[in-house]
């Protein structure tokens, strides 16, 4: 009789044991192909490192994390389909994205399915503004924040200049243009001229024509409101025309992949913004940030960029919310994140409650010369931090946010 009793006891205990060891799945929407594949690789590397660190320290609720990943190709409709597949695979959280359209679409679908969505490289104000809702959070800075730090730096060091804008004709491009024109007092489009380009299929001839127009405008500052392969294409033409020796180039959202793909000679002196560079942990005396830089650099033989840091931070912040609530319930996690302050890879940050925008310091940066870059052991020390603005000074106020929202004054 003893053997059946022992067998029954084992069968009763098995589900508990299996559950304790069953991984908790999270879904990464990232561009493995397309315009932003270099940034996508960085998102993947940062995510994997975070999961490795968390699992090494016991996982979440005693269970390991498992990363599910799907190629979004930076397309909104594909990102939405991926959300459905993550849901069917029982993912408890979704994060990623490299365009604002993608984040808005994927976040909307995640809300319908009751899953939190964390936008990474999605800068348009609309993501946590007009299109914001309770299930979407944004770790990266938004256009308003980039514009504020650039506007302050330019007003101090390059006042009363003439601007020319070349703009990606999409949600992010139009949002960034509006924010930067306001911050630099260049709203007069007759004086501060512009060209808008299709972000998907603009031809080489269209880029050249736009840059010839910029050259003829007699602008002092050329703002390229472009990203990914589009800004690379534009900068190649800029270099060929010698425009980078005639005007100050502004690329609002700079990334290290630009310098790696285009070379320092093409990019030297270009000014932009980032919320994080690998130099920031030392600047802000962040022990965890320094450890992250060291581990990432040893693992991948390159310094981490802002994309890797953003992905790493989101995985840690979601895992921390789960640990604090002892729950995988989306509503509980959302409430735990709202107005939650923390420090991870830099100084103080906060998930602001009323719009779910991450409030953090933002930096204006300038690309170093090739000579300076080559002095670094990895030859990857690309950026000089030229201006810093505290997060509370950079973000939109509640009044500004509600004005953008119109009748919808709270997240739903």
Beta content: 15-25%
Give the class from helix and strand content and strand pairing. alpha/beta
How far is the N terminus from the C terminus?
Answer: 59 Å
Global morphology: globular
Provide mean pLDDT, rounded. 93
Largest sheet data = 7 strands, mixed
Number of helices: 17
Characterize the quaternary organization of these chains: single chain
The total of beta strands comes to 15
Fraction in helix: 40-55%
**What is the topology, as strand order, of the major beta sheet?**
7-6-8-9-10-14-15
Please state the CA-atom Rg, rounded to the nearest Å. 22 Å
Describe the structure.
The protein has helices at residues 2-21, 37-56, 76-88, 100-113, 143-157, 171-183, 204-216, 228-241, 256-262, 264-267, 280-283, 287-300, 306-325, 330-337, 370-374, 391-394, 398-405; strands spanning 24-30, 65-71, 94-96, 117-119, 136-138, 163-168, 194-197, 221-225, 248-253, 271-274, 340-342, 349-351, 358-359, 362-367, 383-389. Mean pLDDT is 93; it is low at 1-18. The longest helix has 20 residues, at 2-21. It has 412 residues and is α/β, with parallel strands linked by helices. Helix 6 (171-183) links the parallel strand 6 and strand 7 (194-197). The N and C termini lie far apart (59 Å). It is globular and about 65 Å long. The chain contains 17 helices and 15 strands. 49% of the residues are buried.
Topology readout:
Elements: H1 2-21, E1 24-30, H2 37-56, E2 65-71, H3 76-88, E3 94-96, H4 100-113, E4 117-119, E5 136-138, H5 143-157, E6 163-168, H6 171-183, E7 194-197, H7 204-216, E8 221-225, H8 228-241, E9 248-253, H9 256-262, H10 264-267, E10 271-274, H11 280-283, H12 287-300, H13 306-325, H14 330-337, E11 340-342, E12 349-351, E13 358-359, E14 362-367, H15 370-374, E15 383-389, H16 391-394, H17 398-405
Parallel strand pairs: 1-2, 1-3, 3-4, 4-5, 6-7, 6-8, 8-9, 9-10
Antiparallel strand pairs: 10-14, 11-12, 12-13, 14-15
